[in-house]
Every structure is written in C-alpha cells, then in structure tokens.
Specification:
This protein is mostly beta strands. It is built from two helices and 26 strands.
Amino acid sequence: MTKHLLKTVVFILIAGNAFAQGKPDDLKYSLMRANLGKAPPLAGWIAISFGKDFPTSYQKIPVDPAFDDGMTYSKEVKTSDWLVESVELSTGKSVVVPVLGMRVGVRPEDYSVYLKITNPAAVDAATHKVRVSYMSANYPDVLFGEPKKEDSKAHYTAAKGKDDADIYLAGNVVAANGSKSKYSIDAKFGYLQSLGGSGAAGFKATFVSETATDIDPDSITVGVTYRKPFVLGDMGLVLRADPVGGEFDREGDNRNLLSSANVKLVFPSAHFGPAQSATIDLVSGFETGNNYENSLAPTGIGGFWRWYGGAGAYLIAKHTPIFQAINFSGEWRVRVPEKAEVFTRNSNTFLTTKPRHHVDSSVDFMFSKAFGISVSYEYGSLPPSFEYIAGKVTAGFKWKLTQTR
C-alpha cells in the first residue's frame, strides 16, 4: 500500500511541475452579464462579461492600438464560438442573430467580449428575450439585459455530462435485460476551494440506488479531490487526483480504500452551424488502494493497482423548437487490474484480472441550462463490486451543474 501511495504522489508532482507555466484558465466559464453597447466605439455591439476565468485563446488575440476608450481592445476577428438567440416578445418568433466579428476588451480584473451583430434592434431587451451562449468548454449562457450576477450565483453553471459535473442528480425508471422495471437514483456532489494558480481542492461523494423499495445507496464513494487545468494551445489538459477516499456497496460486502490520479485531454469544440457544437476528450491514469473485504474473501485481497483510461464525446444543439437545448453525452471508461479482483457476471462471482469496461450514454432534453428529461443507456461494470450490467435503459429527469470561479 505504501508503494502505491508513493506512486500517486510522484505522479501528481511530475504532472504539476511539467505544466506549471500554464496560463490561469480553469477551462470552465461563467457569463456574468450581457447588454448592448450604447456609446462609441462599440455602440451596437453586444458586451459580455466573464467571471474570474477567461479563455486563454482570447487573451492571445493581438491588441488594436487604434481602438481605445480607456480599455485595451483586441483586433476584430471572425468567430464561430458564439450563439445569439432572440425571441420577439409580442409574437414569440425566434431567430438566430448573426455574429459578424468579435473583439476582446481588457482592463485590470475585467475581461469582456464584444460581438458585432447585423441588427442591434433584434436584441432590444424591451421588446425581445435574448440569450447569449458561448458554444465551447462547458457551454455557459446568459440572458441579455439581466443585472450582473452576484458572486454567490456564479459558482455553478450547466455541465456537459456526469463526469464533468460537480452536482448531479438523475431519477429514472430502469429497464434492464433479464429483470423487471424499477426505479433508480444516481447522485454526485462535490465542492472545490480555489487555490489560486495552484488549482483547486475539496471533496466529492457519489451514490447510486436501484431498488423500488429501498432507497439506501447500492454503491457509495467518498473522498478528497484535487483539480488543476492547463492550457496547451487550443486544447486543455486537466489533472485530477484523489489522494484518499473509499469505495463501498450498500451491503458492505466490498470495501476499498482508494487513491487515484488521471489526466484528461480536452479537444477544442467543433461547430456545426451557429447553434450546434461538439467536443471529445481522452483520459488516462490509475487507481490504487487496499481491498479490506469482498464477497469472496472476508479479509480482502490487500493492495491493488488498476490502470484507468477512457474517452468522452459531447454534442449540444441549441435553438430547438421546444427545449432550451438537446445534449448528447457518451462516456467510456476501462479499468485494467494488475491483481485479480472480484467480478460478477450472470450471478457468478470470481476473481480475475480481465479489463472492466463501462459505457454511459444519454440524450438530455433540457428545459433550462441545468434541468431536463433524459433517456440513457448503460452497460459494463463499476467498482467496488464490478457486477456486470448487460444493458440498461433509463428514462427520467436529470439535473447537472459544474462549479466555476
């Protein structure tokens, strides 16, 4: 166990030092306010204020020395990162307002984006409801003309998927191969405290319940967590480390002490028209710890090590006729144990080193940026009991938020 913990510490130190020179950018953003510029030189442009984090790629746009009103501005550039949706209040007619160009404005502690649009009258807050969306990263949005958000309201915004979420709640009706329909609850909660340029640290907990009569969790995880993002050109790299935590099942037949670390490579978003965007990510790392008890060995197998990897794909479509957005997310993970661990399939439990795959995909029809109804499909196995699911379809509600700064 000591050897495995030492490997965890070495991994974190090497990864942190290798990218310590990255610019401050958490790769998660909050939009604080959007309104229409009234005075030159940006009259008729949409002004958008960000929270504490700002895309590094925007910071690298060259300055325009001829464009100055007390704030430093970048040169005007073309952009496909932004969606401006306008609904005329008197008729309900909804349109996408074309964005012709973008400038970045910077003054101390204030980073803003300015969008040049074709028809400023279409974003008059007195006659239209206007939503501005950043179609990259965690896809944040803001309603036009609203008062600037207070700091306490800017800590959480919509998440791409479960892996990206800090607060996640899904309640579903389950239909699994070979079993009767039943209810399930899948929940996750985490909180991170910013450490400035050194990342963020906090805690996380998850639980899953899948019985019609007993709401106790079928599986529980709790632990301390650390997150540090780095910007690599147009891509992002996120270091995640959980120095100490626990994995349990409801019955107490499987109990693990766990440490883990991984890095996730986040690719830039691809845009398919003004209202559709997609991205993918790759993750690689390890999990290590000590198994104190499992369903085959009352005293457990002792220390273990698993290689961990996977990929995720995410697609968001906004400006739909009924919903605020339609999201697709697909996440695949694989765990490869170096030491035989418990595995259950077709009611047969045995020890094996075979890889354990898990796939979770869903289509979410969002009524708001964070709440909607969902249809999901899942198969594979998860720790600590690694009970194989041949295929499970669920339908229900979903609420997913990610923490920003």
